Amino acid sequence: MIIQNISEDGRTDMTFSCPVEQVPLATQAIEAAKNSGEINFHALDADTAVAKVSIVGIGMRSHAGVAQKMFKALSDDGINIKVITTSEIKVSVLVDRKYMELAVQSLHDAFDLDKAS
Fold this sequence. Notes:
Elements: E1 2-4, E2 14-16, H1 23-35, E3 50-56, H2 66-76, E4 81-86, E5 90-96, H3 100-110
Antiparallel strand pairs: 1-2, 3-5, 4-5
Helix pairs in contact: 2-3
């Protein structure tokens, strides 16, 4: 998951995800790149208290409303979405890690996955 926001005042916010056990290594690599002059940034924030939850399926290209259904299911269970990324076949969100299991169950129920064959 990599997201770049619109630049303002010569600065751009970027967000990316990686496995939680790789956060220290990623932080180290980014700091090293800054120290060597390869990149520059004002601040680096690492949040290890989030989880990525995705819905994936080729049918998303032809079925309108899939993302809306996902967002509504999470909202109905009081789960705040911190970051969203989409592609033709996948929608991924970052949520607080403490809601990971609830988010998965919520989406499981919303998409009737217990009825899938």
